[in-house]
Fold:
Amino acid sequence: MTAQAHPPARPLRKDAARNRELLITAARELFAQRGLDVSLEDIAQHAGLGVGTGYRHFASKNEIASALLGQTLDAVVASGEQALTVEDPWRALVGFFEAAVAVQVGDRGLREVFLGVQDTGQIEYVHGRMTVIVTELVRRAQRAGVLRKDAAATDIGMIITMMSAVTEITADFAPDTWRRYLALCLAGLKPGAARLPLPALTEEQFRDAIDHHKKALRPTAKPAPARAKSSR
Amino acid sequence: MTAQAHPPARPLRKDAARNRELLITAARELFAQRGLDVSLEDIAQHAGLGVGTGYRHFASKNEIASALLGQTLDAVVASGEQALTVEDPWRALVGFFEAAVAVQVGDRGLREVFLGVQDTGQIEYVHGRMTVIVTELVRRAQRAGVLRKDAAATDIGMIITMMSAVTEITADFAPDTWRRYLALCLAGLKPGAARLPLPALTEEQFRDAIDHHKKALRPTAKPAPARAKSSR
DNA sequence: CAAAAAGCGGAGCGACTCTTCCGGATAGTG
DNA sequence: CACTATCCGGAAGAGTCGCTCCGCTTTTTG
Structure:
């Protein structure tokens, strides 16, 4: 589903391959620094190339963004899988939190996705893989008695989103601030506190939450093929 | 500072006054529903008026947005002042949280401001009034022993921002979800939990946080006065 | 060392935004 | 009821962004 470089039927020409890499790294940098709203002209220029070259390698701006974001989201999933191998259930949970938030500190585009400001479309795919992992992390911690019984798997995702908000605001000058508020939430997750007033979201609701509502990554809405002449 | 309707030197003509109200309510509705990015054409049309009429009443789109947002932010300040009159320090604190978040549930534009996605410019003004109130709320609660000693005034603002993130994502179908996560944070704010790893932000840092970095409400960057002829 | 294939770049189109301008409609006045 | 200050509406200027098209350059091939 990810627009991974189409398996090169014929190997790319040398310069083309080089330019492709230039584009990818330029895009990654700009998305991370300035968010998902940078223009493709900026990306191309930042790579020292022309706009047309960008479109030779990627069908649309969304394709670059989706591919890059997908890659990063995969990394988050990976750190979740790794957390499952940690024996101490509480340390595993905390470690996962920290990994998931740490990647966002340097990546504004990623934060925009977690905050639901922008939509890349493929989150549900990642979410599918994630829910199993997180559910297991929660189950283990609860069984060990280190996590309050009324915590749910969806709470973990929501807390990560809250950390995104903190980081979005502080990343520029106090990038570690999220640690303070994660600690605060973790304190609230320990057993023994007062009951939580509402039930957690269901997995389905949570998926809707990060998938619905937001503006698609550029409305684009390419209705008419621009030119009347469809010569090509 | 707020672009309150310039004290009408001469009373507005009847239709003008009516249209002004139409514009304001239309803008408020659209900002609340669709966020701060709605076009001014949409606003005018939603009010049943022409674009030009909008500019007769407001100097720019930013002016409408700022004025409206400012009004809402004033309401938040007011609920803070009211909280100071509650005798139970914990109830006062919780009440303030609830008031501050509740207004955001129906107002997407306001959430965008709290999340630092968009900048209206006048937050620092509100922040100035707020910091005194919140500091007092915190001091009272700590003196009564119901709030952990290492909590700071800036923590309150940050928690509100976290609730903005939750609400931004859930407002469309489970608008009360923030209550669960507020409860979780409140549990973490009770005394007795493990120390928080980092110091809180200073007031100055917090002000920078919600003031810096974000994209101004439309770059606009009106460099040249459009037409060369400066007849008017 | 050609010829052909592949790739490059940027002018340019459509769609959208904010804002201005001004002819024509409207409300208040004598 | 006319007359004028006021106001309305929408066309149009200027800017931005996504994307396409096609003449020109570079790489590969034979």
Notes: The beta strands of chain B are 118-119, 215-216.
